[in-house]
Structures are given as C-alpha cells and as structure tokens.
Amino acid sequence: MQETTVSTESTRTILVGIDGSAGSEAALHWALETARIEHRPVTALLGWTADGLPRPVYRAAVNADHKGLAAAAAAMLDRTIERVPMPDPPVELHKIVVDQDPVDALVAEAKNASLTVIGARSPGLAHRILAGSVAQQLLHHCSGPVVVVRGTVTGDQPDQRPIVVGVDGSEPSQAAVRWAAAKAAERGAPLHLVHGFRSNITTFGVPLDEFYPSLRTGAEQLLADVATADLDDDSDVKVSLQAVDDTPTRALLNASADAQLVVVGTRGRGGFAELVLGSTAHQCVLHAACPVAVIHG
C-alpha cells in the first residue's frame, strides 16, 4: 500500500473512491480537474474484501486466492486510472489498494484529505454508499466535504457555469455557503445562493394574498442576512441571491441543470438530530444533474 504524507492544508490530498465502474471514472476525472485548479495531489483508493468484491475484480482474478484477488484489484485500479485523462499540467496521483471494506477504508483515509469524492450509480462502492445507512456512516465519520459526482463532467477551462448552494439559515447551510464561496473564488465562477420557500403548512387564517408575499419577503431577508454574515465583501466572486417559489429540493434540482456544482449542508432545519443527511441533501445526491458536495456544519 502506498502511503501519502501530507503536512499542510494546501497539500492535503483529494481522495477518490474507485470500484472499476463508470461512476468512479467520472469521480476520478472530476477530482483530477479539481486538483489542477487547487494545486493538490489526488489519492485513488480501491478497497476490497473477499466477501464484497467489486464485480470487475472478481471477474479479472486468475486465482480466487488472496494473492490473486489483490493483484486483480491493483490491476483494475491501474486500468481505471489509464482510462481517465490526466489534466494539463498533470497533477500528482497516488494509488492505494487495501484489503478492507471500501467505506471503512475511505473513512480512515479521509482524515488526511481535503475532500472525498465518489461516483454515482455504481454497481459497487457508490451504490452501497447511496443505499441508506452506509451513506449515513460515511457522512457522519468524514470530517471533510463529500462530493458525489453526478451528470457530465466537463474538462472546460475554465467552467463558466455557476456553483449553486442551498441556503436555509442552519449552521450546516452556512458552512456550505462559506465552502462554496471559496470554491467559486478558486474557479472564477459565479455563486448562486438559492432558497426555496414554498411551504405546505396551513396559513392559520391568514389571507393567502398576505401569506405568500410574506414568505418571499422572509426568504429574501434570509438570503441577504446569510450573504452579509458568510461572504467576504472583498471577494471578486459574482453573487446572486435567488428566493424561489418552490420546495428547497426542487429549487436546487432545477438549478443543478445549469450548474457545475451544487453544495448543500448535511442537515438543514427540521428533522431529527440523529439524521446526518437531511431530505434535501439526500434528494440532491440521488437526482441532481451535476456533482453534489455535502458539507458538515
């Protein structure tokens, strides 16, 4: 196993989970392009166990013993890397193959990473991560951001599409705003703060022509307050505040169609404290049209 040594924040690696799927190739592509922008190394990690192998490893193994399976796993990681174009200029790339549950391996290695990247709709690792309790485990134990790569990964330099961040006033949401603003500054991309204010709650006798305008007014004030508190006045990032007459989930999913990245907090207002991944974040991870970053508060 190759060890990655990091000493400062600026050289912390971008960790990518690899399982031989097209989803993990897209994740590696996104991670390499991000590493080029941020001047970071990338660590590609493949974790395997005899009872939970990624299917391509099992098929490629000449001998179904530990040595043969380990060699097949290493070969699959190499093939995945070969299929993904290296940015220009190239970035430093480390490889880790470990006989360990993939999620456990990612959680352990993420302690040395600036963020952890996985692919979507994979038959192996990413499918398990998106399948409920495993997602909760990964997001609970990873102290840094987790990016789920969805949609088409572009190599455009620079990508002019905005970074979209969901705003609801909660601490995870405010952390997401700050993280998204830093990424927008690094990329020279616009930043869209989006708050969906449509509600299914009863108006309790308040006339509709008074109730809905008050929701929009409150949403616009929330966005203004968050922008004042969490964005740097001296930044050159172009910021837009978007109060959307829709549910938070639909507002973000619609915005994802034209975005390079959607950023959400782990859990917004409402729900149970023990649920790390809120419903809006969960739906974005499953259905957004672009990569989704999930940020802890």
Report the structural category: alpha/beta
Q: How many strands, which pairing sense, and closed or not: the largest β-sheet?
A: 10 strands, mixed
N- to C-terminal distance: 33 Å
Number-wise, the strands total 10
Any low-confidence stretches, pLDDT <50, length ≥5? 1-7, 269-275
CATH superfamily of the largest domain: HUPs
Which series of helices and strands comes N to C? EHEHHEHEHHEEHEHEHEHE
Whole-number radius of gyration?
Answer: 20 Å
Number of domains: 2
Our estimate of the beta-strand percent is 15-25%
Structure in a nutshell:
The protein is of the alpha/beta class and 297 residues long.
SSE blueprint:
Layout: E1 13-17, H1 22-38, E2 42-48, H2 55-60, H3 66-83, E3 93-99, H4 102-109, E4 113-119, H5 125-129, H6 133-141, E5 146-149, E6 163-166, H7 171-187, E7 191-196, H8 208-230, E8 239-244, H9 248-256, E9 261-265, H10 279-287, E10 292-295
Parallel strand pairs: 1-2, 1-4, 2-3, 4-5, 6-7, 6-9, 7-8, 9-10
Antiparallel strand pairs: 5-10
Helix pairs in contact: 4-6, 9-10
Characterise the protein shown here.
The protein has helices at 22-38, 55-60, 66-83, 102-109, 125-129, 133-141, 171-187, 208-230, 248-256, 279-287; strands at 13-17, 42-48, 93-99, 113-119, 146-149, 163-166, 191-196, 239-244, 261-265, 292-295. The protein has 297 residues and is α/β, with parallel strands linked by helices. It folds into two domains: 9-149, 3-Layer(aba) Sandwich (Rossmann fold); 163-295, Rossmann fold (3-Layer(aba) Sandwich), CATH 3.40.50. A ten-stranded mixed sheet has the order 3-2-1-4-5-10-9-6-7-8, with helices on both faces. Helix 4 runs parallel beside helix 6 (133-141) and helix 9 (248-256) runs parallel beside helix 10. The longest helix is centred in the last third of the chain and has 23 residues, at 208-230.
